[in-house]
């Protein structure tokens, strides 16, 4: 190769880089993600849409369809056991600060 090719490569390498920057959008409360993970039967970290605080949800369990199905499938003396097992109940997530219902996880 001749020296002009080397010279043009060297000039391209030594040329200062021009970087363009973009302004980041300003986030308001409408663009805050509401959940970090999907709602399940255990507490999750979530942004409350009412008080706009990032909180660990409070979970309350209540009898749902799966609880009643298990109740009907057991013998008479054991039919109340599903009402004592949280894993068979629906989970209602609430904000511990403002008590707003954030969502309900239904088993069925």
TrEMBL record:
The record's subcellular location field reads: Endosome membrane; Late endosome membrane; Lysosome membrane
**Pfam family, any one:** zf-LITAF-like
Keyword Metal-binding found: yes
* Transmembrane residue ranges: 65-85
Chief subcellular location: membrane
Q: Provide the LITAF domain boundaries.
A: 28-107
Q: Which domain of life is it from?
A: Eukaryota
Q: How does it sit in the membrane?
A: Peripheral membrane protein
Provide the GO MF annotations for this entry: zinc ion binding
Q: Which UniProt keywords apply?
A: Membrane, Metal-binding, Transmembrane, Transmembrane helix, Zinc
Q: Which SMART domains match?
A: LITAF
GO CC terms: cytoplasmic side of late endosome membrane; cytoplasmic side of lysosomal membrane; nucleus
Its family remark reads: Belongs to the CDIP1/LITAF family.
Protein name listed in UniProt: Lipopolysaccharide-induced TNF factor
Q: Which organism is it from?
A: Haplochromis burtoni (Burton's mouthbrooder)
High-level lineage: Eukaryota, Metazoa, Chordata, Craniata, Vertebrata
């Amino acid at each position: 190769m001749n020296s002009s090719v080397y010279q043009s490569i060297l000039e391209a390498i030594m040329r200062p880089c021009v970087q363009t920057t973009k302004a980041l959008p300003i986030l308001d409360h409408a663009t805050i993600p509401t959940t970090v993970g999907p709602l399940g039967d255990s507490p999750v970290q979530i942004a409350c849409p009412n008080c706009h605080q990032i909180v660990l949800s409070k979970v309350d369990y209540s009898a749902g369809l799966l609880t009643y199905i298990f109740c009907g499938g057991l013998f008479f003396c054991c039919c109340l056991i599903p009402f004592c097992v949280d894993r068979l109940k629906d989970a209602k997530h609430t904000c511990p600060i403002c008590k707003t219902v954030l969502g309900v996880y239904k088993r069925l």
